[in-house]
Design brief:
The protein has 165 residues and is mainly beta. It has one domain. The protein contains two helices and ten strands; from the N terminus they run αββββββαββββ. The protein is globular, with a radius of gyration of 20 Å.
Amino acid sequence: MKKFLLLVFISTFSFSQEGLPHCGYDFTTYLVANPIDSTTKKIINDLQITLIDSQGNEVVNTNNEFSLIHKDKTLIFAKNYRVTLANAEERWFYNICEDQYLLQLKANFIPEEKGYSIKISDTLNRYATTTVPVFNSNLYVLCTTKVKSFGPKMTNNMITIEMSK
């Protein structure tokens, strides 16, 4: 029994932290866009926000190259939404943001490497189409050591865009 406990004790401390499983968000990063009206400072609904490359082409997730979801589809941001829990408590589905738009990507996505941007189009034609560059500091890198490559407290900055009519 002593040998077994000793083996468990040694094996617990001999594995590096990188070798251990983390959380359900491993290998995931998010971009969060916060398009607000320049006058009211409120979030604008009914927008289509698309990831584009340096040439202005919409980025397609061919064979899940950029994201583990939406294989072979254009990478379009989704609007966060509220859910009701079993105890009738209400919360945002994605807890990294509130009433914003977000896009799930793989943790190895480095936007500054290839000059990615987002294109914001208003489906109701109230606002002009806007293009905004995406920086490494805009990534919400979850449960990974990748965040170290950008330095401390340099990530998790949502992309806030003030739009005028």
